[in-house]
Amino acid sequence: MADDSVKGEASAQQQRDDGDNKKTVGSNGEGAAENQTMSKRQMKKLLKQQKWEEERELRKQRRKERKQQRRLQRQNHQEEEEEGGDAQSARKRPRREVTPSSLRLVVDCSFDNLMLIKDVRKLHKQIQRCYAENRRAVHPVQFYLTSLGGQLKQSMDEKDKGWVNWKDITIKTEHYSEVVAKEDLVYLTSDSPNVLEELDQKKAYVIGGLVDHNHHKGITFEKAKELGINHAQLPLSSFVKMNSRKVLAVNHVFEIILAYLEKGSWQEAFFTILPQRKGAVAVDQDGTAVQDKEEEDTDSDSDPDPTPEQTEKSPDGQLQTKL
């Protein structure tokens, strides 16, 4: 009986061991299957990555072709717009024949250290206007910018990087006296006692590049005298009476010169360019403003007040006028 009991326990233990072994085998089988599944995924990912790398150059070439196609489309569209715009402009205004002038206009930019940055930026805009007007003028002048540097150049670099590609303009860092012969220079300043009657095509007329709100009155005149160069003022008082000061912005002086070259008349040039806020009124040959003379004529046409001899008292005490 004892032997049978021992054998029974041994058999039961063997069965338990066999069961554990089966579980272990099953567990190992599941792990192997899982490992095999992960390997397939990794293989698929690897193949996908390889294909991506192989097609890299192809994708790059396709992007390049699409980019080039878009560029061509933009160019064609722009050309069509320009052709249409040119035709429209031609219908709106007659084509004017451009005849360049040999006259030189110089903007003296040597006053950079006398201006605040806000005034430097105003000067920059005025120079931009001068350039634009000269490009579309009937008789464009030889445009010079001298003594360019400091705050002005910095403003131009920051706000208008395209200025380096400007055409038909001479830009120098040197002073104008080093660029143009001294005997050819005429400084335009409202403080000069000399009045400019006509323009000399052989001269170089200098405009002071200064926006200072009259803080440095007479400085351009003094500079001209120091250098011993000719100076003159525009004949403004001979043709125009203004409510404000006679000092004009750089672009106004520049545009007046261009207008005079086109029209041949100072008065037409002044009234074409001067802004309305200046209150410009035409002046007659005797120096009287036309508007004032018209007002005087109007007053003289009205009935004069009666003199004491022409008045007498009526019987009721009221004053009567003798006719």
UniProtKB/TrEMBL annotation:
<feature type="active site" description="Proton acceptor">
    <location>
        <position position="212"/>
    </location>
</feature>
<feature type="region of interest" description="Disordered">
    <location>
        <begin position="282"/>
        <end position="323"/>
    </location>
</feature>
<dbReference type="GO" id="GO:0005654">
    <property type="term" value="C:nucleoplasm"/>
</dbReference>
<keyword id="KW-0489">Methyltransferase</keyword>
<comment type="function">
    <text>S-adenosyl-L-methionine-dependent guanine N(1)-methyltransferase that catalyzes the formation of N(1)-methylguanine at position 9 (m1G9) in tRNAs. Probably not able to catalyze formation of N(1)-methyladenine at position 9 (m1A9) in tRNAs.</text>
</comment>
<feature type="compositionally biased region" description="Basic residues">
    <location>
        <begin position="59"/>
        <end position="74"/>
    </location>
</feature>
<dbReference type="InterPro" id="IPR016653">
    <property type="entry name" value="TRM10/TRM10A"/>
</dbReference>
<dbReference type="InterPro" id="IPR007356">
    <property type="entry name" value="tRNA_m1G_MeTrfase_euk"/>
</dbReference>
<feature type="region of interest" description="Disordered">
    <location>
        <begin position="1"/>
        <end position="99"/>
    </location>
</feature>
<keyword id="KW-0949">S-adenosyl-L-methionine</keyword>
<keyword id="KW-0808">Transferase</keyword>
<dbReference type="InterPro" id="IPR038459">
    <property type="entry name" value="MT_TRM10-typ_sf"/>
</dbReference>
<dbReference type="InterPro" id="IPR028564">
    <property type="entry name" value="MT_TRM10-typ"/>
</dbReference>
<feature type="domain" description="SAM-dependent MTase TRM10-type">
    <location>
        <begin position="91"/>
        <end position="281"/>
    </location>
</feature>
<dbReference type="GO" id="GO:0052905">
    <property type="term" value="F:tRNA (guanosine(9)-N1)-methyltransferase activity"/>
</dbReference>
<feature type="compositionally biased region" description="Acidic residues">
    <location>
        <begin position="293"/>
        <end position="306"/>
    </location>
</feature>
<protein>
    <recommendedName>
        <fullName>tRNA methyltransferase 10 homolog A</fullName>
        <ecNumber>2.1.1.221</ecNumber>
    </recommendedName>
</protein>
<dbReference type="GO" id="GO:0000049">
    <property type="term" value="F:tRNA binding"/>
</dbReference>
<dbReference type="GO" id="GO:0005829">
    <property type="term" value="C:cytosol"/>
</dbReference>
<dbReference type="GO" id="GO:0002939">
    <property type="term" value="P:tRNA N1-guanine methylation"/>
</dbReference>
